[in-house]
Amino acid sequence: MKTQIIRLETHDDYISIRDKMSWSKARRILLVLPRRRPPLLQRLDLILLQRQAQALGGQVGLVTQDQDLILEAKELGIAAFPTIPAAQRMTWQPSTRRRRLLRYRKTQKANPDALRRLLDETRHRPEKNWVRLVFFLLGLSSFLSLMLFFLPSATISLDPYQEEQTIEMLIRASPQIEVVSPSGLLPVEVFRVKVQGTLSADASGVQQVGDQKASGTVILTNLTDGVVSVPQGTILRTLNEPFIRFETTRNVTLPAGNGQSREVAVRALAAGSQGNVPPRALGTVEGNLGLALAVENPQAVFGGSDRQGRVVSEADAARVYDTLITSLAEDALQELQNAIPPGKTLLPETLVIHQVIEKVYQPGIGELADRFVLNMQVEFEGWAYDQAHLDRILNDAMNANLPEGMAAVEETYQIHDRRVKNFIEGESIEFTIEASRWIEEKIEAAQLTAAIRGLPLENALTLIQQQFRLASLPEIIVRPGWWSRLPFLTFRMAVEER
């Protein structure tokens, strides 16, 4: 016969041994205990292991050198062997106690008189027919009563009276407000965004600008005893303000000696009529040569002319700035709408310039140009409030004015209009808001079913119309159809709203 050998460890107990035995498919399970430090198995453990083996349809045996454990096993009818080969070689005998029990059962003789008395006591005695009929009728009536009590059901369809509830409320929102107040105080969060743009336009300013440069001749006089060399481009200017500056157009050398002079051609540094000066207007040489030379124009210097030119005016700059800042504000508003988290609502009226990071005109204001360009980078800020906070304020206000016996209809709340009354930049904004929702007659299903249970159908309909305001007549469907009363059990009645 196939034997399943299970080697135990020192730390094994009844539970772990039972788990190992549960995997066995053999008819004989041999538990091999280690010689050194075997697991501690009590008498109760052996009994439970024996029962586990019997439950698996097999027999358990032990391989151990522990004499006390061997005696316990023999008393319980568990086979015990000194080695594994001995267990495989020897026959596993059933327990002595079981053999005694079987022997006793075979040798015990039954008492015929006792068996006869037992048979008489257990023999069925038929009851009288009328008693059986009474009990049958009682049972049948009880069954029918229960059927009539539990079988009927009803569906009650109601159309509660509804009306619209509206509210107009003044809301004050500010970054300084931290807590939502039913009085209309609403916290807001500040959001900022940076945008940049470029806009070009025609210059419309008109200004007289120089066209031709004035020119003429001057006399340079040596104020030293040595030779003085005057290079081309030496700067000369008028004596009186506003100073008009000229330059020499060629190199010239003054002979040695105080009072020696030479004539040299000059022209104005800047084009325009302001370069035309009368005789003896020039009198100063700029630079180090001013101590060594004297200058004089015996004749007028002329030839300078003007023309009308287009320049970038202040009006041009302001016009382009207003146009570009309006466009950037629209871009900033769109970006803020996309940037704020879900559930928050932006207040467009609070959009303001937080700072102008860059504003550059090319060419600059007052400079000659037919067209010019404005480059700007601006940081805008706007306020946004949590929509749930506003909804809570409005719903609390409407609940405070809710008529008695009415309840709000779900998913009918909506905001109609918002009008800004006052906005103080950086401080607060005030606006009025209109909202509405539908409310209906409050009908408690438990109260209704308790009031009409067991009533005739017509009486129930009349009672419902008297106790509740309805938009239309109620409808009651009773099942089965031939039943004329409402169920006595409230859980058998369903209340529905049309």
3D architecture notes:
With about 500 residues, the protein is α+β, with helices and mostly antiparallel strands. The protein folds into 4 domains: about 5-100, Transcription Regulator spoIIAA (2-Layer Sandwich), CATH 3.30.750; about 150-160 and about 445-495, no CATH class; about 165-205 and about 310-435, no CATH class; about 210-305, Elongation Factor Tu (Ef-tu), domain 3, CATH 2.40.30. Helices cover about 30% and strands about 35% of the residues. The protein has 11 helices and 24 strands. The protein has helices spanning about 15-20, 45-55, 65-75, 85-90, 95-105, 110-120, 130-150, 315-340, 385-400, 445-450, 455-465, and strands spanning about 5, 30, 60-65, 80, 155-160, 160-175, 185-200, 205-210, 215-220, 230, 235-240, 245-250, 250-255, 260-270, 280-285, 295, 305-310, 345-360, 370-385, 405-410, 415-425, 430-440, 475-480, 495. The strands form 6 sheets. Strands 6, 7, 18, 19, 20, 21 and 22 form a 7-stranded mixed beta sheet that branches. A 6-stranded antiparallel beta sheet has the order 15-11-12-14-9-16, with no helix packed on it. A hairpin with an 8-residue loop joins strand 18 and strand 19 (about 370-385). Helix 1 packs parallel to helix 2. The longest helix has 26 residues, at about 315-340. The radius of gyration is 58 Å and the shape is elongated. The model is unreliable at about 95-110 (pLDDT under 50).
